[in-house]
Amino acid sequence: MHPQPSLRSTHAYGTPRNLLVYDRWGAAGRPVILLHGLCYDRTMWWPVAADLGGSCAAVAVDLPGHGQSAPRDEYCLDRLTHDLAMLISRLDLRRAPILVGHAEAARVAEAFAVKYATHSVITVQGTGLDDVPEPYRQFAVARPDQSLAEAYRQRLLPRRATATMQVDLGDGFPHLRDPAAFATLLRNVR
C-alpha cells in the first residue's frame, strides 16, 4: 500500500482589507512557501504541493488581488513582504522557509529574503505551457487584469540582491512539467 499525499486545507489570514488566502499541506519538515506570478493564483502550485505535503510544510498563498485574497489600494513591495512575514509567523513553522517565486513573484521572494529569515529562494521565470502535460495545464490558467498587473509591475521593480542561496530554474512551469521532480528538488535544497 502506498502512502496517500497530505490533504490540502484552505485558510484565511488578516482583516477584510488585507485578507490573504492560502492552502496548506503537511505540518512537519522544511517549510516551503509557494508564490504565483501575476494574474495566476495559488492553484498553480497544487500538484507539487500535494507531493511535498508528506515531507514538508507546503503553503501556497494567493497574493493580494489574486484568487481569493483581497485587492489593495497599493501594492507596495515592503507591505507585501511584511504581510507575508506576518502570515508565515502565524503558521508557527519553526524553521526558515524556502520561498519559491514564479515570474514577478520572484521579486517578492527576493525582497522577503533581504528582511526576514529565509533558508533559500527558488525562482522560476517566464511563461510557456508547451512542455506542460495536458492534465497539468488546468493549474496554469492566467486571469488577465491589466490594472492589477500594472499596479504590481510599478512596485516590483527594480530587483534587489539577496543574501540567501538562490536557484533560478529557468523559463516556464517546471513545477507543472514534472511535479514529482520539482518536489524532489525542493526536498533536497540544503
TrEMBL record:
Alphabetical list of InterPro entries matching this protein: AB_hydrolase_1 (IPR000073), AB_hydrolase_fold (IPR029058), AB_hydrolase_sf (IPR050266)
Any Pfam family the entry gives: Abhydrolase_6
Superkingdom of the source species: Bacteria
Domain AB hydrolase-1: 32-177
Gene3D superfamilies assigned: alpha/beta hydrolase (3.40.50.1820)
Position of the signal peptide: none
Database matches in PANTHER family: MONOACYLGLYCEROL LIPASE
Protein name: AB hydrolase-1 domain-containing protein
Organism: Actinoplanes couchii
